[in-house]
Structures are given as structure tokens and as C-alpha cells.
aldehyde dehydrogenase (NAD(+)) (Roseateles asaccharophilus), 505 residues
Amino acid sequence: MSKQTQDLLSALGVPSSAYTGGSLIVRSPIDGAQIGAVPEASAADMTAAIARAQAAFLQWRTVPAPKRGELVRLFGEELRAHKMDLARLVSLEAGKVTSEGEGEVQEMIDICDFAVGLSRQLHGLTIASERPGHRMMEQYLPLGVVGIISAFNFPVAVWAWNSALALVCGDPCVWKPSEKTPLTALATQALFDKALARYQAAGHAAPDHLSQLLIGGAAVGEALVDDARVALVSATGSTRMGRAVGPRVAARFGRCLLELGGNNAIIVTPSADLDLAVRGILFGAYGTAGQRCTTTRRLIAHETIHDELVARLDRARAQLKIGSPIEAGNLIGPLIDQGAFDAMQKALAAAREQGGEVSGGGRALAEQYPEAWYAVPALVRMPAQTEIVKHETFAPILYTLKYKSLGEAIALQNEVPQGLSSAIFTNDIREAELFVSASGSDCGIANVNIGTSGAEIGGAFGGEKETGGGRESGSDAWKAYMRRTTNTVNYSRELPLAQGVKFDV
Ligand code: NAD
């Protein structure tokens, strides 16, 4: 196991017993080297952890929300102090280039700041009552235990989006991270434990089990999903996972927040600033080696500019520097594992069969890193939006399509089963407004003159259709982590019934 990983984990406060001698072998996608052997939890461990979380909930829900915010503020301080170490660990374990690893931790810090402010603004409405001497209001109250299932590609930020809000809302969290990225999860949990210890040492009454981490496979995840004490299951990952998790939570009338796959498109119209569009598409399609839920997977360009735009993109694509994500200058890191590379090759073969003309897409750096899976980003000129184009392949493949009318472009954009992110590049205000209108993009995110990826935490994040319908992060996404009660208070000496109903004896 690499000394660098060990040093980082130690600096982040993770004891070596947490990542040595266990059954879950962790490999760095950078070179395929083993960087951990993590002990795994069982389904019974998960059930016991949920019981501890439920006990913690009974206490935490009585702590005033601004005081709960103080814990999240301290956690944000720990993240600031350890930003570079945690970011480097994200690069080593998930293969993100340095600035994207740092960006991921910055996102955690930002959501903590957001949640601290929110802890003084968890407000409901006062509503005019139709009855004299009555007041009607709604309150948002703590919901209960929140279960968090996260994906490999945002191994720590997605947990922070959920937990920072859940904690200020009064909900303890139980986290099952991706089995591909347990080390970053261990480090994040260690930083949280440190913040909690500081909070308790400062005299705040807080239970111990406000955040628990359980590493394991599907059985551990299923124990979380099926437990009626888990009031909200927030699950981020593939649509396949959402299809398994959603109905199970629904069967017990639990609440589910699903953040699933995307198949995001950019429309480029004749009036667009092509320089801007090229930059937006390149980062969107190939940044993070195509492994973002918001990655641009489809380009829909007007027939008068398609060929020129695609030729420019193809030239720029061929120049993107592929290599170790922790070496300066490289923009494209590795795919997470061989499975991801094989899925990419399968998709490219299908695209060829369906009439696509493929540039790039092969294996890169195989001699230097025989145990790792670097891919040359691919661009595929498609004759039509065939089946493979409608499918999310989690790899750097950009399909290009032509359109004649904007109506046709929007129809193509909306024709896929996923509905996460979308964008239009145009300098025509009518086109821009139509795109973000009710007759425009059907996605949860619709942008103008910026790409599909790289959302800010201030907005609500999520998408429609097979993306799952959940919203996380900013705006009023916090409401998913609370239960709403409507209260009517009678301060008169009468008891008038609503709607004028009489019931006098
Ligand atoms: P994945 O679906 O393979 O795994 C995600 C998580 O679900 C893991 O923790 C996994 O252990 C767990 N899981 C899988 N099956 C389960 C089950 N039956 N019960 C309980 N838990 C289960 O996804 P991945 O490969 O880690 O991530 C890539 C996918 O995630 C892509 O489809 C991507 O679009 C999506 N994603 C979506 C968002 C979003 O916000 N919409 C964000 C990041 C990633």
C-alpha cells in the first residue's frame, strides 16, 4: 500500500485498523495499485447503527436548529483545515485531476456554510385562517434518521450535500458509500468525529451517533433501505440502483430522494458564440473523464454550423492531455476501473453498428499503467438519435447530432429517458427563453451559455424522469429533510367549524 495514501489517511485522523486487513480491496484507478483492505460491515451492523441513530434523533431533535448549525460550522472548519489532504485522497481513490479533487472538497465547505445560514431560516408560513380568533401556521420539524447511499464519482461531496442539511434539520445520518471509494469516506467521517468532539467539549449537549459510516456491499445497503426507522433514504447512483431502491422504500411508505443517471445535451444554435460553446462542450463532455452525472453526452447543433463546430471540437479533443490526475497539466484522468472501460468499448461498438463515425475512444497509457484504465476521449458523429445515444454510458463519449428547427432540437434533447442537465448556446433571446420555458428543456437543470456540468450549491440539484425526481443542495431542498406540520390555534372563546359546518347539540 502506498506510503502517500497512508500518510494522508493518518493526517486526516484515520487509524490504520480501518483500512488494513479487511476484505474490501481498494485500488487506485491511477495505477491499479492496492491502497487499502477495508473491513466491511454486515447487515446486522447496519441494523444496530440505525438503532443508535434513532436514539440520537430523540435527543438531537430537541436541540435548537441554530445550535445544530454550530456543529456544521465546526465541521466546515475541519474541512477547511484539511482541504488539500482530503482533495488529494479523492484524486488517489477516485482518479480526479487535482483541481477537481479540490473543487469537490470546496463544495463540501460551501454546503456547510449554506447549512449554517439555513439553521436560522428553517421557516414555515403563517396562513390566514377563515375563522375569527384563529391563527394557522406551518412548521418544519426534524424528520428522523437519514440514510445516505453515495456513488463513486462524487465520493464525499454528495454525502456532505445530504448530511450538512440533515444535521441542521435535526436528523442523524447513516452513510453507505460506494464500495469503490471507502477511504475518502473513512477520512470524511474522521473529520466529522473531530468536529463533534470539539462541539461536545465546548459544552454543547449532543449525542454521539449523529453520523455513522458503514462500508459494505448490496446487503448492507439493503438493510438501510428496508429499515422502517430510516425516515429518508437519499440515494445517488445509477438508474439501475434507483429502480432497486425506490420501490423498496415506497413499499414501507418511507421517503426517498433519488439522484440517478443523466444523459445531458447541449444545443448550439446558429447565433451562438462558438468559442464559448467549444469550451463549454469540451469541459462538459471530457472533464472528470466523462464520469459526472452532469457530463455532456450529446451535442445537438444546427445543420449550418454542425460540421465546423464538430471539426473544432474533434481537434481540441485530440489535444486533451491524458495522464495521472495528480501530475500538473493533465486534464483527463483514468476511468474508475476495467468495467467502466469495457462498457465504453461496448457503447462505441454499438454506436458504430448504429451508423456512428467514431473518433478516439481507445485505451491510453496501457504500457505505463498496465493495471489502470485510461481512455482516449471519444467523439461520435451520429446519423440519428439511436438507442445507444439514449443510454447513459459513464465514460467520455460525446455523440453529435444535427437539427434544422429549434423545435426539433428541443424534441431530440427531451427524447431520452433521463432528465438531469441541459444547456443551450445562443445569442438569440427568443431561443434562450423558449429553452427554459414550459415548452423547452424537460430537465431539472437548464442553462444558457454555460455547459451542463459544474452546478453551484446554491441551486436545487436534481432531475426528472429516470434521474429520479429528487432535489438536493440549495434553494428549498432542505424541506425534504423535515416533516411539515400544519397547526391551527384557537385563541377565541368560540369553536367555529371550518366551511361554516354546524354541529350544535
Ligand atoms: P451505482 O448505482 O453502481 O452505485 C451507487 C451506490 O448504490 C453505491 O453505494 C452502491 O453500493 C449502492 N447500491 C447499488 N445497488 C444497491 C442496492 N440494491 N441497494 C442499496 N444500495 C445499492 O453507481 P456508481 O457507478 O457508483 O455511480 C455512477 C452513477 O451515479 C451514474 O449513473 C451517475 O449518473 C450517477 N450519479 C448521479 C448523481 C446525481 O446527482 N444525479 C450524482 C453522481 C452520480
Q: What stands out?
A: Residues 12 and 187 are 6 Å apart (CA to CA). Residues 98-118 form the longest helix (21 residues). The chain is about 40% helix and 20% strand.
